[in-house]
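Reopening closed ticket. The problem is back. First fold of the pair:
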Amino acid sequence: MCEGAPHLPAQARRSRTNEARVRDRACCSRGKVSPGSLPVGPSVVPGLLLLLVVSPLAAQSLGRGRPVPVFQEAPGWAEGAGLMVANATLGAVSATVVRACRGEPLVPGLLWGAAGGAIHYAGKRVAVERFDGAGLLGRQIGGVGTSVVRNAMDGGRGPLDELMLPLGPVRMYVRTRGAGPRVRARLDVTAVAAALYARWNPALHLDAGESLSSGTLVFRVNNRAIHMPWSDTELCGAELSSTILLSRLFEAETDARVFAHERVHVIQSDYVQHVVSDPLVGLLMGGTATGRALHRHVELNVGEVLTGLLEHALLRSYSHRPWEIEADGLAFR
């Protein structure tokens, strides 16, 4: 257990009331950082803060006084099968809705979309394992599944015609058939903004080993919570546009579960980016030659903004958010 970390009772681990806010006057007050929390450096660009405010905050849950993650009971085979079916259904719906709007055959989209969703889930299942490189491997498997869904949305593509392989804020695109370059890279500017926010915060440090193992940038702080001033929350873990922020507050097992939870959110974010955001941004930027040229090299994850709006409008309760339920269930291993 980390020095100064509270004991995590069994009752807290079983709890499903995962509200991500600490408003205990003994700990902190609105607009004031409590002792032991993570301060935000004054050099943060206001525009960058605004960008991160409207993006959804996929975070681990808190307790009173100091953040205490709470997990549901370990899922059985039925719950695991249900999660896989849910992911397959999401992939099938994503592909068939787009094909229906285009007047293209629905059955191939339904079948390949479901297959891609199942592969995407398999990536998340691998990412929560404890061996070195599990997050990196899981993210690539999830990227293949997401690519199958994206290809299934286009009646002119085969399921593996183009594969998206994410690594940190960069996404590599490998074309296996058709015209154009075989390999190209695109930079996710939203992920870069999140990484710059973490880098400019003097209390956070880049964990190079965990970043390599996870396939994304991981920043850590020891023996204090992560304070998010725009939402007045104190967190033990957060995912910001595929960048992971972690605090070391508890025993090794609990910290490992928090980390696994956030790795699931990274793969969920990849799906939103590739299936929802990128087609939408491409449509909006496709009206000009400059926009098309820019879109070939950079990505902007507006899908996370849409998810954040949904979260604030309809899913304020942590325990009602499907992405948190899935991350909780997979992290309990």
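Second fold of the pair, where the issue appears:
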Amino acid sequence: MRLYFENNINNISKLKALESLKQKIIPNNILYSNEGLFLIEKKSIKKINIVDDFIEKNTINNLNFLIDHSKINYEIVHKIPFQHHFIKSNLIYYGLSMKSKIFLVIKENNNQIIDFYFETNENPNNYSIQEEINTLISYLN
């Protein structure tokens, strides 16, 4: 699930402070077309199927979040639509370790931040998840 800041935070530009917590960078090459969204990977093409679910508001240590419970499924395909728009970006994952249960994900295109959110499979009300969120945010203050 993804946790989006309900209000934009001004500190996101202080990403240099998080550099020591950078865990991985994943290319995120997406084709946008009338037939849907497609993820282009080194050896495969996957159609992105988003299963919408509910969005809830939650406050964690005086920060308001929108929690998106939607699921993303992938279907391997062997062709891409003729008419499409291609956007190449990177997903940069910041966490306390590679085994963290939650990551701050920054989506960049041409060194510009185009999206940011926390990503986890755990309950965001879990104390350890909230502590990790607080620690990551403290680097931005």
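Update: turned out to be a display glitch only; the data is intact. The CA atoms of residues 85 and 109 lie 14 Å apart. The mean pLDDT is 92. Please close again.
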